[in-house]
Every structure is written in structure tokens, then in C-alpha cells.
Amino acid sequence: MNYLINILKNIEGSFFSEKGLLYSLFIAFYLASYLPSPAQSDPFELSIEQLTKGKKHHFFGYIGQCQTIPWNESGRYILGLEIETIDRMPLPEESATVILIDTQNKNKLIRLDKSHAWNPQQGTMFYWNPLAPENQFFFNDRDLTTGKVFTVLYDINQRKRVKEYRYEDSPIGNGGVAADGSAWLGLNYGRLARLRLVTGYPGALDWSKDQLAPENDGIFLVDVQTGNKKLLVSYYQMEEKLKETNPKLDHSGLFINHTLWNRDANRIYFFIRAGWNGQGKERINVPASIHADGTGLQLHETHIGGHPEWDLGNVLIGIKYNDGKGPDEQIRYNVDSKEIIGSLGTPEMFPKPEGDISLSPNGDLFVNGYSDNNKNYYAVYRRSDGAFARSEGIDKGLYSGDIRIDPAPRWNRSNDAILVPGIDKNGTRQMFLIRLKELQ
User: Fold this and answer.
1) Can you tell me whether residue 108 is helix, strand or coil?
2) Is the CB of residue 115 less than 8 Å from the CB of residue 83?
3) In the chain, which stretches have pLDDT less than 70?
4) Backbone phi, then psi, for 41, in 5-degree steps?
5) Interior CA angle at 164 toward 139 and 65, to 5°?
6) pLDDT tens readout for residues 66-83
7) Max CA-CA distance within the chain?
8) DSSP code of residue 273
9) pLDDT digits (tens, 9 = 90+) for 190-244
10) Can you list the alpha helix ranges (DSSP code H) found in 47-180?
11) Number of C-alpha atoms within 13 angstroms, CB side, residue 283?
């Protein structure tokens, strides 16, 4: 019954009113013989296998970009980093080795390059180039002499960097690649490291450090083909927007987290933040969205969590906080109308809907990764028929704060496997796969 009600909620685009509830229940019973039931669906199970091993640590990183797929187009290679230690943030001179995992050759590691722009949670913002997803990918790097961050486009067939996006006046790194491959969003990772270390790179140059809301810094848009860069929205513009509802705004410096392209590559959702380092001034955590052409900047009063994910169109998946009056819910939020329009699954399926979440490329499979004690668990829900499964726990160790190991699930292109992090029996951080298998 709950399954049918959820379907009707999504169809109607809003929650039922009390007056309409009885009528809606009547419709649900009437349609029961026509709509698929979770009990009638072909269930699936989740199995876990370890992908990497050894004395060094291996990981992919972040979920802060929507539609980040670790696999190349054919599914043969998986991107990752190899590092020496995970018990602290890296020193500025410490590099991470960029690797490929060859899934057709006993998961052999292929070491390609080095990066000096990374951290244990985010990695280096890997993204396969949508214009050449079989053999090209992006990652961030940093000049050791100047501290300037830049983005690299690497070609695995040529085994070399085919392009570097360097900007002397505003050295930025990739913060999200558009699904159509047209552009990537650029961020000042020096500013992020200063204002919230876990989101930036130690040793990165911060050219706007003397200003709380600079006019020459913010979210940049870089054309992948030409390398042309423009400032999409500045921190000054964000501050002015914030002051419309909070004229007495007093903060210690604005920064950005989670620049999320939607699947149509025409809208960006992000968080405007300040006060994360305990400087004693106002803590800011405001969701915002903007069109890819720089118009339509708007703030959102409804906060749907720290790690939302784009659904199809201009709809986000996130959390509805019920303030202890009931369990929190995994919901769908329309960015245009600024309202919650439906839900996914049930609170029993997703006990922590603010966990790391990811939607499969085909839009049908949804995974919520959440922590319980020192393990990460993954709940997978199939939207088309309501089928559901939960994984066994994967050890995440006792790491916390800036070096914590979040669930960070990432789908493959064939919608039947998820890349996740975990701790090996020898204590090293390694990469694991959760595979979906249909039960006959």
C-alpha cells in the first residue's frame, strides 16, 4: 500500500492533503491490480568483492559531482589514486599516483601520472571526458613552485597529458564536468583549503584570501574545447543575494561546496557556506541554484541535505528533516517550484536519508550509503518495481573529521555495480565493488 501511495505522490507532484487522503487511498486500491507490486518484482541481491589490495592505499574519492562514473565507456578501466598514508591530510609536497585498474587483466594496476592536488576524501575530482569517455579523463594538479591549481585532460591511448587548463590570474581546478562534455566548473581550491580544509588542497594558492566576498572569485565556467574561462557567479553576487533576506549578514568568508550539474547540463546546484572553521562569526549553509548561462541565481529555503543528487530534469533527490516528529525521508525536490514533490522508498529502507546517495545512469536504481559504528552500508532501491536490497557492512575504520571515509557510492555505466571504499584486513584503504545480481 505504501508503495502505491508513493507512486501517486510522484505522479501528482506534491504530498497529499488531509482532505484528499481518503480519496487518494480509494484510487490506490482501485489501481492495485494494474500497478506493479514490490512483492511481485524479481528481487536482486548484493554481493561485495574487493577490487584493490596491497600495502599502499587505493581510492576513487568524492561524490560531490553528480553523474561521476569511475569506469571508462567500455567498462574495462576504473580510475583511482594510490597513496602512502590516509591517517592525515597530505603535505603540500606529497603526490598521489593516478592509476587505472584493468578489470580484464586480473585488476592489474596501471600507473599513469602524479597529482599534487588531492585529499583523502575528495581524491582529485576525477571525471571521464564525456566527449571521449573511452580514453580521456580529467583530474586536478598543482604547481609545486607557485601553488597554482590547474586541471589536466589525460589520454590513456597516448599515455600523456593532452591539455592543461592553467590560468595565471585565477588558478582554478575542476569542480564538476557537464554531462554533455561542453564545460567544467572551476573553483579556487586554495580558498576552500583555507576556509574548510577537507574540501581543498594543502599548499594551494588562494588569490582571493584578503576578501570575504570577492568580485573576482566564485564559480567559473570553462569551455572544454577552447579553454575559455568566465566567472559564472561571484562571491560578491552571492553575498548580495544573501543580504536580501539577511541584511545584517556577518561572516568570515564565503566559499562553495558541491557544484552539481544536472543531467541536462543547463542547471547548477551548490551550497554557499561560511564559518566552518569556527571563527566566531555567522555560520552560513544556504542552497542555491543558477542556470548554466549565469542567469537565474536563486536561494532555496528548503535544505535537502549535504550530499543531494540530481534526478531527471530539474529535480533533486535529498532529505526531508522531520525534526524528531517522525523519521526523516528520502525526497524529491523541484528546483523550479522550490517544493518537495515526492519521496523514494520508505524510512525503513533509508534510515539515514542524508547519507551519500547516487542515482544510476539509467535513472532507475538509487543507492543510499550510510554509516553505522565503523561500517558503511548500502541500500539499493529500484524505482520501476520497488525492489530493494541492503548490503552487508564494509569496514570504514575509525578515521574521522577531514580524513573520514564516507560511503561515496558510484555506479558503473551498465547499472549493475557500485564502486565504494573500505578497509582491508591489513588496515589499508582499498576499493570495493558491490554487484547487483537478479534472483531467478
Assistant:
1) strand
2) no
3) 1-42, 279-280
4) -75, 160
5) 30
6) 889 999 999 999 999 999
7) 70
8) E
9) 999 999 998 999 999 999 999 999 999 999 999 999 999 999 999 999 999 999 9
10) none
11) 5
